[in-house]
Amino acid sequence: xxxxxxxxxxxxxxxxxxxxxxxxxxxxxxxxxxxxxxxxxxxxxxxxxxxxxxxxxxxxxxxxxxxxxxxxxxxxxxxxxxxxxxxxxxxxxxxxxxxxxxxxxxxxxxxxxxxxxxxxxxxxxxxxxxxxxxxxxxxxxxxxxxxxxxxxxxxxxxxxxxxxxxxxxxxxxxxxxxxxxxxxxxxxxxxxxxxxxxxxxxxxxxxxxxxxxxxxxxxxxxxxxxxxxxxxxxxxxxxxxxxxxxxxxxxxxxxxxxxxxxxxxxxxxxxxxxxxxxxx
Length: 280
Ligand SMILES: [Zn+2]
Description:
Largest sheet: 7 strands, mixed
CATH class of the largest domain: Alpha Beta
Order of helices and strands: HHEHEHEEEEEEEHEHEEEEHH
Helix content: 25-40%
Strand content: 35-45%
Number of strands: 14
Radius of gyration: 21 Å
Bound molecules: zinc ion
Shape: globular
Structural class: alpha+beta
Distance between the termini: 78 Å
């Protein structure tokens, strides 16, 4: 009997907590549930391979995307600029390099987001270029496990940055590398304060995304940004979110179903991710 009353003493505060949770209910409860289900899940809209082959139709809305993460990268219907998701805000770095906040009704053909929780941090200073940055962040990835996903945010000062965006495409859509060869815009910044948002995918993801790192940048006052082509880091703090779950959503449209998504488009992806104007 004694043990039962002891247990009841534990149960009653729990019941009170439940009652409180029910009272506050609504949004707070929804948010807690989302965080529980999604915090360690990387959510992906379509494939980088479908985007690369020219499938630029939006699959979900910006409003829906925000239900799956508060940090990430991607693009918009018609490849209308580069997406940076940070602190729950979806930013759109459009063709002139400036940032707009898209409405929730805007749609998304490709993106990766997660609810960011810091698992590890790393101080970065005097990192010469993209290769050196990747080497530095790979130190953490290799220590924690290179077969998981990582979202990283790197806040600080960047000695030099080259970022790109692109003009919105109209139908019929061309393959991404072909469209970018004509419609890519590039911007160089020096001593820029801001944030890199980066995604690491393990090597086995090379048929669904790109293996390794993919970075987007947004400046501190959230007015300029884009897909990072080159970077040198002066002084920054990197925060890593190790993510061991994966969820993908696909289009049910006929056009998407007819695509050959097993086709090897690695070279086209490499060109689309890394090429600068006048260079293949
Ligand atoms: Zn990008």
